[in-house]
Description:
Layout (H helix, E strand, L loop, with lengths): L13 E6 L10 H15 L1 E4 L12 H21 L6 E7 L1 H15 L7 E8 L12 H12 L3 H7 L12 H5 L5 H7 L3 E7 L8 H4 L13 E3 L16 E3 L8 H53 L18 H13 L11 H9 L44 H13 L2 E5 L7 H4 L13 H12 L3
Parallel strand pairs: 1-2, 1-3, 3-4, 4-5, 5-8
Antiparallel strand pairs: 6-7
Helix pairs in contact: 1-14, 2-3, 3-7, 9-10, 11-12
Amino acid sequence: xxxxxxxxxxxxxxxxxxxxxxWGNPNHLGxxxxxxxxxxxxxxxxxxxxxxxxxSLTYDGIERGxxxxxxxxxxxxxELARDGYEIRKLSVAxxxxxxLVARYAVGxxxxxxxxxxxxxxxxxxxxxxxxxxxxxxKGYANSIWNGLGARTLSMSGRQLFTIDxxxxxERPLLSVLADPDSIFIQALAKFxxxxxxxxxxxxxxxxxxxxxxxxxxPYTQMDRLKINFYNEYEPVILDPVMPVEPLSEEELxxxxxxxxxxxxxxxxxxxxxxxxxxxxPIGSLIFILNSFIQTVRSNKRIRLHEIDDNLGFRAYRVPLxxxxxxxxxxxxxENVNAAxxxxxxxQGTEEVVHGRAEGHPGMDFxxxxxxxxxxxxTPSDSDSSREPAKPRAADFPTLALTPAQFxxxxxxxxxxxxxxxxWIHQSNHSHAAIIVRSTxxxxxxxxxxxxxxxxxxxxxx
Length: 461
């Protein structure tokens, strides 16, 4: 009898985990998941779109989302092993709040010994508010808006506005996530590739400074900038090394051009402004009422999560330090949040703020080289031919961030992220467009270029 020499089909050894954002579900990352599967097939890659932290469960806090995510990853790895897969590599991508949940989850995976069994390969975030979502404001406006906004999204809201005290650390969770001595930073550092994609305009949920881990926002006056794009990904992906340059006096628009542009912009936005003025009070009322209901429900879930061991979450309580109506509701929140204008530190005070950050608990802010929109490199990035450019600190004013936020920037930049600014032109909801949250909306088409760039230029199999 002739021996059958046909080779059995190979099975993937690489698991890629996708984590959705606030109010989200796995379908939000459907295009990303489909693109990964189409490019690599089941022979090379298994894609897991996390579904255990959907919808209003995202109100319950980043750490609980992270614990649910890790439990789902571990169960998936066990199931794959039973089916004959030998998973050796792990990649994680998070969208919006999901990027923060992912950062927490990889810290837990590291603490539980998974990085001794799996090689961490790619860590990516899309429009993730790494520094929280508080609007850079000074004085009473800071207390009123950022204090009010923090109380509308239960525990997750308090964490995003950095007014929480995480467990027994007496510090905001986002500060703990960015502590150089934490399991979370050490886990991030183990990934071969770390990159992020940040919208430069029209992100009503998470502005550029926080999604790009930057102390300034160069994109507030686009008509005064020369935009440099990244090769064939024009006009969506900006050059990460030198994304913008100020226009010369001769190139700047004239007074009449600016006046005409503003008038055109005013009239084009007038219908939206009128609808905004009419619907936002109603939407805000619905939002606040819904927030109260969801907060009550979330608090009940949090109590059960903390005390009920039937779900097994107590196993995820690890040492944090290595050393000892929903669519309308979402739109209402995003619109009100986007209506807050950013404020800046007075010129010459940056050094004082940096000094305050230096004394922030657990943080070392000795280096002031972190600048916006640069291609950060670590020794593990030595294969890249693109060298980082350090824009002059005086190019753009420093935002009125908190000392804790400046310290987060320092710590995350020390780990090293490749930062890709994204300019979505066709949609005024770039937060959703960046990952093509809906394939039926033509205005989201530019997000396909973002995903294409990620797969072709950054994702390592």
